[in-house]
From TrEMBL:
Source organism, top-level taxon: Bacteria
Protein name according to UniProt: DUF4287 domain-containing protein
UniProt xrefs under Pfam families: DUF4287
InterPro entries per the UniProt record, alphabetical: DUF4287
């Protein structure tokens, strides 16, 4: 990842390292979730998968920006 990386993707290396899953796996989970609202998805990732708020927010924002 370039040093100048900004936005949600700047969290991806830390997310993969901390939680042991590739980002694609997280985006697949988000897309398969029965929830649709940003806040609901963030809360779900935090409660069900133990993600921190910033990491959950970054994953949801990135996934939704891709048209999930």
């Amino acid at each position: 990842m370039p040093a100048h990386e900004k936005g949600p993707t700047s969290y991806f290396p830390a997310i993969e390292k901390k939680y042991g899953r590739p980002v694609q796996e997280w985006t697949d989970l988000i897309r398969a979730a029965p929830l649709t609202r940003h806040g609901e998805l963030v809360a779900w990732l935090k409660a069900e998968h133990g993600l921190g708020h910033g990491h959950a927010t970054a994953l949801v924002a990135h996934t939704r920006a891709q048209g999930a």
